[in-house]
Design goal:
Strand content: 5-15%
Bound molecules: nicotinamide-adenine-dinucleotide
Strand order of the largest sheet: 3-2-1-4-5-6-7-8
Structural class: alpha/beta
Radius of gyration: 24 Å
Largest sheet: 8 strands, mixed
Length: 440
Amino acid sequence: MKYAKPNLLKKIRKNNALVGVIGLGYVGLPLALVFAEKGFNVLGFDIDVKKTEKLSRGECYISHINSKRVSRVIKQNMLVATDDFSRLNEPDVIIICVPTPLTLQRDPDMSYIIQTAKQIREKLRAGQLIILESTTYPGTTEELVKEILEETDLVCGRDFFLAFSPEREDPGNKKYSTSNIPKVIGGVDKASGDLAQELYEKVISKTIRVANARTAEAVKLTENIFRSVNIALVNELKVIYERMNIDIWDVLDAASTKPFGFMRFNPGPGWGGHCIPLDPFYLSWKARECGMETKFIELAGEVNRRMPQYVLDKLQYALNAHGKSVKKSKIMVIGLAYKKDINDDRESPAYKIIASLIESGANVSYHDQFVPTIRPTRQWPKAPPLKSEPLNAKTIANQDAVMIITDHTSINYKLIAKHAKLIIDTRGVYRQPLRNVIKA
Ligand SMILES: NC(=O)c1ccc[n+]([C@@H]2O[C@H](COP(=O)([O-])OP(=O)(O)OC[C@H]3O[C@@H](n4cnc5c(N)ncnc54)[C@H](O)[C@@H]3O)[C@@H](O)[C@H]2O)c1
C-alpha cells in the first residue's frame, strides 16, 4: 500500500487518527486520557467488563487518577471504552498496554501479548500503526508481534507499521506523569518509527528516538534493572550497618548531600509492584537463550526477596524481648500497597509478611485506606478476606506490635508512636530513637 504512510501521517498531524488503547490499567488508562485530552478520539479496549462499564459511566478505578479527568472525556465522547474486540479494525493507531507477568517458574508470561497480537491480526487492515508499550525482552516486537501480524498478507513497514515505546509511568508521582515523561521510541523499520514519533510528539512533551524496537525494549529493562540492583544494594547495606550500630537513614541523608555521583535509593521491607520484581527477569530469560548469565539481576533478586524475612526476624526478636511469641500475638500491618499513596498492591511485600505471620499463628489485622480489602491473587489464592481496620488510639493500643510496611502520607504516625507497645519501622518514619520503635 503505497499511500499507507502519508495517509496515516496526515491523520496524525490533523488529530484525526482514532487511537485504540488495549489494556486500560495503570498504564493504558492514563495514556488513553492524555490522547483524549489532547483532542484525539480514543477507543479503549479491555477484557475486564467491570472496567469498561465503570469507565463508560465516567467512573475511575485508579486512586491516583483524578476521576474528573475520566468523567470529562467520557462526557465529551472523546474516550469510549469497550470489550468488543471486533472493533479493532476501527482505530488508525493501536497501543498495547497489557500485563507482562512472570510464570510461577519465573519465566516471561507472554500469553497476554500473544493473545492481543492475535486479536489485532484478525482485524488488521492497511494503514494501521501498532505500538507495544508493555515491558518485555528485547526482540519481542520484531520477532513475536511482527511475525503474528504478518500471518496476514500485509507487510510491516509498507502496509501496516509497528513500533515499541516503553511506558515509564511512576504511579502517584506528582511532578512527572504520562505527558511530561520523555518518551523513548523505536520502530521495527524507519517508516514505523517515524509515524510513532509523530504521534507521541502530539501529546508528550519530549520524544527520544532510538535505533530500533529492540533498543527501546532494552532501554526500559535497563532502567528497571538499575532500580532493582540499587534497591538491593541499599537493603544489603542496611543489614550490614545495623550490625555496626550505624543507622542507614542517617547515612543516606548525609550521602545525598553530595551534589554529584550519588543517587539516593531507600531501603524497605522488600520490593513490589508490577515492574521492579518482574521486568529484570525478562532480560535474564533472553540472556540465557544467548548463553549468557545475568549475575547482578539474580543477586539483586536474592537480596530483595530476603527482606520480608529480615523484617519478620526483627519482629520476632522484639516480641521475644517483651516475653511474647509471634504465635497468638496481635499484629497490625500498616500499608499494603507496594509504595506510598497509591492503591497498587501487586507483588507487595506486605502480603509475604502477612502470609508468614498467619502461618506462625499470629492474629493479624491491617490498615490501608487505599486497599480496603485483601483479595485472593494468583500468587496467594488462599488470601484471608481481611478488611482495613480503623486506625485510632484504641486499635493501636490493642496490638502487641504495629508494623509499618508502607508509609502512606496521611497516616497519623504520632498517634501510633504514642499508643503502640512496639513498632517495627521498615520505612525510616521515625528518625529519632523512641523506646517502642525498632528499625527494620
Ligand atoms: N504499573 C506501572 O507503573 C508500569 C510502569 C511501566 C510499565 N508498565 C508495564 O505496562 C504493562 C501494563 O501494566 P499495568 O500496570 O498497566 O497493568 P494492569 O494490570 O494495571 O493493566 C492491564 C490491563 O490489561 C487488561 N488486559 C489483560 N489482558 C488483556 C487482553 N488480552 N486484552 C485486553 N486487555 C487485557 C487487564 O484487564 C488490565 O485492565 C506491563 O507490561 C507493565 O510491565 C507498568
